[in-house]
Amino acid sequence: MTDPTRDPHFPRNPYPAYAAMRSACPVRAVPAGSGGRTSYLITGYAEAREALADARLSKDTAAFFAGKGSNRRLHPAVAHTMLASDPPRHTRLRKLVTATFTTGAVGKLRPFIERTTGDLLDQWPSGGECDLVAGLAVPLPVMVICELLGVPQADRSDVRRWSAELFAAGAPDVIDAASHAMADYMTALIAAKRRTPGDSLLDRLVAARDGDDRLSEEELVSLAVLLLVAGHETTTNFLGNAVLALLQHPAELTRLRENPEAIPGVLDELLRFDSPVSTATFRFTKEAITLGGTDIPAGVPVLVALGAANRDPARFPAPDSLDLNREASAHLGFGYGIHRCVGAPLAKAEAEIALRALLTRFPALRLAVPPDHLPWRHTRLVRGLAALPVLT
After folding, report:
1. FRET pair for 244, CA 20 to 30 Å: which of 12, 62, 67, 147?
2. Residue 284 main-chain phi, psi, to 5 deg
3. What is the percent of the chain where pLDDT is above 90?
4. Phi then psi for 29, rounded to 5 degrees?
5. Are 233 and 223 in contact (CB under 8 A)?
6. What residues have CB less than 8 Å from 134, skipping those under 6 apart?
7. φ and ψ of 289, to 5 deg
8. How far lies 248's CA from each of 104, 171, 244, 357, 374, in Å?
9. What are the tens digits of pLDDT across the range 173-186?
């Protein structure tokens, strides 16, 4: 029994391996780690959607790892976020931030996003080569989420570095150290906001904490770290993947250039085609369940491959084709159920604004290297480019 997702060539193009696994069995056992434990990997759309909404699958990582020996020293505020919890705790924490990410609330951020996008693109060379990841996809979402949370300008480069380190695949010591650096920073920032209150999202969370003792100090720090990291990491990958997909499909790209007003309507297809979150965050079975005809025992991890589900031909015909006319709103790129990404409206707004500006300002934008020379990040959780060299 082998796990194809651990092949070193997998990050470059995971979809053939996903298709082979899905056609053989949409829910299959795979080895997990060196301890001989088994996980279950879901690659079918119907099975993935069912799993994401099944209350018998828990996200309480603290409960799963309790009593299991580990050398990891991940900071509790990072290890036990809202994402790693079940109702009623999850319900209470999510309610505190949901209002911030409504379409209307995000609309107030649009002028800042547009201004920041313009400032970043002003630094691009005219008729030269530029790395779209370093020059737009990374800094834009960081600046936006830092603005939303009230992170001072001088601290944003540190925040960006720690966040990248939290996703350093195969480097547990780097990840653990970054978790402590980020949590310590947010603890200090929260203290500073108590001394000098402002009107940012973090200020509102501090007020909720201080006015309602159901929110502990650790939960406050944890929420802040989660919003900071999740608020930009996936959007970075979304932007890079979306631009690459368009550059590799020139007919679709030309249509968008000629009709930029269509950009909001194609974002779901871009999310479906190359999902920025490849595998949903950790879940495990609280009891024995059956999914896709496969019996899964209690107490084992279940990995939901969102990228695989979004290419399931049973749900999306000709799934390996980018079709900007496709009705793709049922994609699972943002998850599904009670844990669906709370920041989805913000991610879509950033992608829309960035794509519109790119296509308008750089009508000759094209790849600077062959697609098979592009470096992909080596992590199974998120799918994104380490760099995207383009010619302007």
Report:
1. 147
2. -145, 160
3. 67
4. -75, 140
5. no
6. 387
7. -135, 165
8. 33, 32, 6, 19, 13
9. 999 999 999 999 99
Output the CA angle 331-389-239, nearest 5 degrees. Answer: 25
Handedness of CA 34, 36, 42, 48 (dihedral sign): negative
Q: Whole-structure pTM over 0.70, yes or no?
A: yes
User: Hey, how many other C-beta atoms are within 10 angstroms of the C-beta on 151?
Assistant: 22
End-to-end CA distance of the chain: 46
b/e 370-387 (16+ beta carbons within 10 angstroms → b): eeeebebbeebbbbbbeb
Give the separation between CA 123 and CA 143, rounded to whole angstroms: 16
**Rounded-to-integer distance, Cα 238 and Cα 243, Å:** 9
Instruction: Work out the number of other CB atoms within 10 angstroms of the CB of residue 138.
Output: 24
Locate tokens 């109702």: which residue? 87
Pick from 390, 382, 391, 379: which is nearest to 6 by CA? 379
Biggest CA-to-CA distance, the chain? 59
Strand partners, 31: 38
137 and 379 Cβ atoms separated by less than 8 Å: no
